[in-house]
Amino acid sequence: MTGGKSDAPPLAEKIYAAVRLIPHGKVASYSQIAALAGNCNLRRYVGNALHKNPSNSVTPCHRVVNANGFCSGSFAFGGGDVQREKLEAEGVVFTGGHVDMEQCGITEDDFEDMRAGLEEEMKRERL
Questions:
Q1: Could you tell me the CA-to-CA distances from 98 to 10, 62, 82 in Å, in that order?
Q2: Exposed, middle or buried: residue 46 (CB in 10 Å: 0-12, 13-18, 19+)?
Q3: CA 99/CA 40 separation, integer angstroms
């Protein structure tokens, strides 16, 4: 995968690849990343994989929030406050303690671009 091969299971690698496609200054939900990985019901698996993310500098897991825009209380790299700081540094807007999903959540076009990019990356990996 882009950013170097890890010992993560193939599904986790696909999740990391999807997360790397989230545009700077935007966020995606665990369910959206799970859908890109092939099953929208795997949102808990997404959270677990991101908690084990080997490198936030390569895979920006801080860009994944819950469906209501709340940061993870157990963000692997320092807690919810650090996640919020990283998002705010990218220009993500918070309202009432959570991300303004209407303004900063990925759009349907973003999602489709991410899906196409992920499919392309998976094809390259199979070669």
A1: 31, 13, 14
A2: buried
A3: 21
Stretch 40-56: mean pLDDT, rounded? 89
Residues near 14 by Cβ (< 8 Å), separated by ≥ 6? 36, 37, 38, 118, 122
Q: Between the CA of residue 74 and those of 37, 84, 99, what are the distances in Å?
A: 22, 12, 17
Res 75 pLDDT > 90: no
**Three-class secondary structure of residue 86 per DSSP:** helix
Element (H, E) at 95: strand 94-95
Share of the chain above pLDDT 70, in %: 89
Q: What's at 37, amino acid-wise? A: A
Cα dist. 121→49, 82, 88, 114 in Å?
A: 19, 29, 29, 10
Per the structure block, which two tokens stand in for 88? 């705010």
